[in-house]
Amino acid sequence: MSGRSVLVVAHTGRPEACRSAALVIERLSKAGIEVRVLDEEAPDLHCSGVQVVPVSAAAAEDAELVMVLGGDGTILRAADLARASGTPMLGVNLGHVGFLAEAERDDLTSTVERVVERRYHVEERMTIDVIVHRNGEVAATTWALNEATVEKAERERMLEVVVEIDGRPLSHWGCDGVVCATPTGSTAYAFSAGGPVVWPEVEAMLVVPISAHALFARPMAVSPRSVVAIEVLPDTPRAVLWCDGRRTVGLPPGARVEVRHGAIPVKLARLHRTPFTDRLVTKFGLPVTGWRGRARPGAGDAGGPAGG
């Protein structure tokens, strides 16, 4: 063995993901790389010669990579393990849009080759830390890579909240909820709620109201040093906090949720230095017909010297 280790996480509910995981495990093992799989996934993967590890913060400890086969939901699940150990994640998209993934299913063989040859780079993504207060006491602490959302828990009634930025009240909203998102999460729930797309290298937090009945209820981008607080008013129905659509905390009337820049980033392994603009065009199928690009010297276009 080379002393290298990779944790493979798969959406085992999809036969395609299990087949892809088996291929990845086989090729990594042949290259002398130790492969770990989670104990809850091992029975579905039917792979021998792997190290089976429990689902815990130590699952990816000292591993070189966490390779994830599935959609963004699977990547967010794996982020719980990767963040705890500071291990980069490399996602192979087997879902739909797959914004967090770096490779597509058709690139699986070349993706494994690049991992074996260490031909990838690592970038850090901002996270958010979330604290829930009840009756003046800290009731829960959690985090998110994409977003933290305070939502109404009862469909038939509107949620009443006051939003605070840096210790000052901003507005009282009757709404379905409020999304606090990272730049990474700007293409997820916040996007669906009408928020802007933010390039990943921009350090900011988004505050996006959901179906708010208010004159001032626009999406906002605040400083990464800001603290955003959402207070559930005492006379409102109960609410619920969702982080990345995975971790949930009940919010009784009077609860307070504070959101700030995360202390620990998530690391993503990248195979290509593709501009984020190109990623948007590809993932959303954006029309770019008619684009001519910048003028080239000698091309006769305005802004460049005429050809002779």
UniProtKB/TrEMBL annotation:
<dbReference type="GO" id="GO:0006741">
    <property type="term" value="P:NADP+ biosynthetic process"/>
</dbReference>
<feature type="binding site">
    <location>
        <position position="77"/>
    </location>
    <ligand>
        <name>NAD(+)</name>
    </ligand>
</feature>
<keyword id="KW-0808">Transferase</keyword>
<keyword id="KW-0520">NAD</keyword>
<feature type="binding site">
    <location>
        <position position="176"/>
    </location>
    <ligand>
        <name>NAD(+)</name>
    </ligand>
</feature>
<dbReference type="InterPro" id="IPR016064">
    <property type="entry name" value="NAD/diacylglycerol_kinase_sf"/>
</dbReference>
<dbReference type="InterPro" id="IPR017438">
    <property type="entry name" value="ATP-NAD_kinase_N"/>
</dbReference>
<feature type="binding site">
    <location>
        <begin position="146"/>
        <end position="147"/>
    </location>
    <ligand>
        <name>NAD(+)</name>
    </ligand>
</feature>
<feature type="binding site">
    <location>
        <begin position="187"/>
        <end position="192"/>
    </location>
    <ligand>
        <name>NAD(+)</name>
    </ligand>
</feature>
<feature type="binding site">
    <location>
        <position position="157"/>
    </location>
    <ligand>
        <name>NAD(+)</name>
    </ligand>
</feature>
<dbReference type="GO" id="GO:0046872">
    <property type="term" value="F:metal ion binding"/>
</dbReference>
<dbReference type="GO" id="GO:0003951">
    <property type="term" value="F:NAD+ kinase activity"/>
</dbReference>
<dbReference type="GO" id="GO:0005737">
    <property type="term" value="C:cytoplasm"/>
</dbReference>
<dbReference type="Pfam" id="PF01513">
    <property type="entry name" value="NAD_kinase"/>
</dbReference>
<dbReference type="GO" id="GO:0005524">
    <property type="term" value="F:ATP binding"/>
</dbReference>
<dbReference type="GO" id="GO:0019674">
    <property type="term" value="P:NAD+ metabolic process"/>
</dbReference>
<dbReference type="Pfam" id="PF20143">
    <property type="entry name" value="NAD_kinase_C"/>
</dbReference>
<comment type="similarity">
    <text>Belongs to the NAD kinase family.</text>
</comment>
<keyword id="KW-0418">Kinase</keyword>
<dbReference type="InterPro" id="IPR017437">
    <property type="entry name" value="ATP-NAD_kinase_PpnK-typ_C"/>
</dbReference>
<dbReference type="InterPro" id="IPR002504">
    <property type="entry name" value="NADK"/>
</dbReference>
<keyword id="KW-0963">Cytoplasm</keyword>
<feature type="active site" description="Proton acceptor">
    <location>
        <position position="72"/>
    </location>
</feature>
<keyword id="KW-0067">ATP-binding</keyword>
<keyword id="KW-0521">NADP</keyword>
<protein>
    <recommendedName>
        <fullName>NAD kinase</fullName>
        <ecNumber>2.7.1.23</ecNumber>
    </recommendedName>
</protein>
<comment type="function">
    <text>Involved in the regulation of the intracellular balance of NAD and NADP, and is a key enzyme in the biosynthesis of NADP. Catalyzes specifically the phosphorylation on 2'-hydroxyl of the adenosine moiety of NAD to yield NADP.</text>
</comment>
<dbReference type="GO" id="GO:0051287">
    <property type="term" value="F:NAD binding"/>
</dbReference>
<keyword id="KW-0547">Nucleotide-binding</keyword>
<feature type="binding site">
    <location>
        <begin position="72"/>
        <end position="73"/>
    </location>
    <ligand>
        <name>NAD(+)</name>
    </ligand>
</feature>
